[in-house]
Amino acid sequence: MVIKTANFVKSSGKWQDCPEPTIPEYAFIGRSNVGKSSLINAMMNHKDLAKTSQTPGKTQLINHFLVNENWYLTDLPGYGYAKVSKSIRKDFEKLITNYILNRRNLVNLFVLVDVRHNPQKIDLEFIQWCGESGVPFSIVFTKADKLKPNVVIKNVEDYKMELHKTWEDLPELYVTSAEKKEGCEEILDFIEKTNDFLTHNNVRFDE
């Protein structure tokens, strides 16, 4: 997919305030320091489309970007150990959960996982929740450039082994590096093929 245009649309404090659900939407989520904004910027070929920060938990709203005038990329608040109070964290969780379960044009959720670490309980629990809730999702491993290739392969295999304890079939897996733009084209190809399928089958979200 060639990115011709990528523009910020709006930030929403609740899912009901998101843009009208008339076109396909793909959301990105992960722990607070997983490198989500950097990956989005790499995918969109835009240095500062999504705001990056040294402070985990910077994204506290649902941020929508219109890509190529025909699909939305959504940047969701990170989950995990953002330095916020418990009450604010609960608000984040409610915002994320309501968005994922109620946004009818959400085609796929990309769950970002830092490939440098062993499988983390919070990530595994979130992935399990997606499966139990019937949410279509993919797993995106980030920061592959921080490790040697053989270590990346080992860590991904470890993760797959952990998931196979409760999953028979695994979702799509992508290994990415925002720094080197690895894996970005594969994710965009998936989105392009999915959009073509939806168009071909006249799928509408606003009915």
From TrEMBL:
Single GO term (MF): GTP binding
Domain annotation EngB-type G: ranges: 22-197
CDD domains hit by this protein: YihA_EngB (cd01876)
Keyword GTP-binding: yes
Cofactors that this protein relies on: Mg(2+)
Keywords: Cell cycle, Cell division, GTP-binding, Magnesium, Metal-binding, Nucleotide-binding, Septation
InterPro entries: G_ENGB_dom, GTP-bd, GTP-bd_ribosome_bio_YsxC, P-loop_NTPase
Pfam family name, one: MMR_HSR1
Source taxon at top rank: Bacteria
GO process terms (BP): division septum assembly
PANTHER family, per database record: ENGB-TYPE G DOMAIN-CONTAINING PROTEIN (PTHR11649:SF13), MSS1/TRME-RELATED GTP-BINDING PROTEIN (PTHR11649)
Family from the record: Belongs to the TRAFAC class TrmE-Era-EngA-EngB-Septin-like GTPase superfamily. EngB GTPase family.
NCBIfam families, A to Z: GTPase_YsxC (TIGR03598)
Chain's role: Necessary for normal cell division and for the maintenance of normal septation.
HAMAP family: GTPase_EngB
Name of the protein in question: Probable GTP-binding protein EngB
Organism lineage string: Bacteria, Pseudomonadati, Bacteroidota, Flavobacteriia, Flavobacteriales
